[in-house]
Amino acid sequence: MILIKDLHKNFGQLDVLKGIDMQVEKGEVIVIIGPSGSGKSTLLRCINLLEYPTSGDIYIEGEKIDHKTDVNRIRQKIGMVFQHFNLFNNMNVMDNIALAPMKVKGLSRDAAKGAANELLKRVGLADKANAYPVQLSGGQRQRAAICRALAMQPDIMLFDEPTSALDPEMVKEVLMAMEGLAQEGMTMVVVTHEMGFAKEVGDRVVFMDEGRILEESTPGTFFSHPENDRAREFLSKVL
């Protein structure tokens, strides 16, 4: 589903990604962890071309993506959920979810709203369809944001620290929604500090530091017997 070869990303003189190689198979849940500033979010943003790589290659479902690529077409395949929700505050939950399928895919309003209702049921928000973002808790807003991404029927979902802006008691409801997606076979790449999610839901854990992948293995191996010294140091501080 995703193949990344020798990916580099510079911002001026700052080297953020320093030769990333990674692949993601259909239905896999890849959890990317590591300290702040290690390049995790930049990697996600390169995958859906919110940032263009400085060098290296990215393939989505076998298609190489670059400056010549129809960005909007690629982004229809890739849903992204951000740290800070990014819902439209002047629209209710239903309209937030239905907007893109209507504008981009040409769905009728009835069809888009019907699909949105089904998504809201899946994440336990069926009773919030007419609420505005300001009327929702952080956890509810993030679940609505997940629905908005899913409304485009993507093949891949990217999550950029989706729980880091939430109060601790709201984290569980968002992680449960993500776990449900994983159980349904959605291909997911998740940047998170939630080690419990990485252990229980991830198929592979990727540990990044200073723009490089230092270790990659199954959760069982990574959390019990990390090979890299920096990974061991990181885990000693977060577990």
Helix content: 25-40%
User: How can the largest sheet be summarized?
Assistant: 6 strands, mixed
Order of helices and strands: EEEHEEHEHHHEHEHEEHH
What is the topology, as strand order, of the major beta sheet?
Answer: 6-7-8-3-9-10
How many beta-strand runs?
A: 10
Calculate the terminal CA-CA distance, rounded to whole Å: 31 Å
Mean pLDDT: 94
Which stretches are low in confidence, meaning pLDDT under 50 for 5 or more residues running?
A: none
Question: Helix count, per DSSP?
Answer: 9
**Gyration radius over CA:** 18 Å
Shape, per Cα inertia axes: globular
What does this structure look like?
- The protein has helices at 40-47, 71-77, 93-103, 109-122, 138-150, 168-183, 195-201, 219-224, 229-238, and strands at residues 2-11, 14-24, 29-33, 55-60, 63-65, 78-81, 156-160, 187-191, 204-209, 212-217.
- With 239 residues, the protein is α/β, with parallel strands linked by helices.
- The protein has a six-stranded mixed beta sheet, sandwiched between helices. Strands 2-1-4-5 form a four-stranded antiparallel beta sheet, covered by helices on one side.
- β1 and β2 (14-24) form a beta hairpin.
- The chain starts with a strand and ends with a helix.
- The mean pLDDT is 94.
